[in-house]
Amino acid sequence: DAGVTQSPTHLIKTRGQQVTLRCSPISGHKSVSWYQQVLGQGPQFIFQYYEKEERGRGNFPDRFSARQFPNYSSELNVNALLLGDSALYLCASSSGGGSDTQYFGPGTRLTVL
Amino acid sequence: DQQVKQNSPSLSVQEGRISILNCDYTNSMFDYFLWYKKYPAEGPTFLISISSIKDKNEDGRFTVFLNKSAKHLSLHIVPSQPGDSAVYFCAARNFGNEKLTFGTGTRLTIIP
Fold it and tell me: For A103-113, what is each residue's pLDDT tens digit?
């Protein structure tokens, strides 16, 4: 079975632009979470979605938004990009039972110039 | 406020010996702990987990120990193999909440 997939793999944007990152969960998984990992740090929680509803939000500004579609795939949007948004963005999926292991995708490397 | 801490940024171990990676946490509400392994240009890969009702969990070469009173957990890898060279992250969460709080990682290098 395919694991979590993310697109694109790499992305270069300039300050002020907007970006959309995409994630497809493992087949049968209904929960998707997004994390940001900057160099030298562990991943930081951004959002969790379950059955298209937002279940959790981390300490990120309103420039960050997400949604989940009926097929459980998800998009993360970031508006008005700042240099500090340069990071690896990771998507994780789980069955969504609240106590399930999360499995991560390979990530999207975003560079903001 | 770093609620999960991995105080050793790096660790080098001879092949065949035991690797011990440590993790401390401050939030007493955490009740489930996980270890992930990460290679460059890949996402974190789940290794092993432990619930707060246990103090040890084993899976093959990997064993995780939890000391709740000290708010400390450790990952033991025996024997260490070259393919174990990676960055290891400790993560924690509250019951029923999928949000993971990660440490900053420990880079493990296995020396042949």
Answer: 999 999 999 99
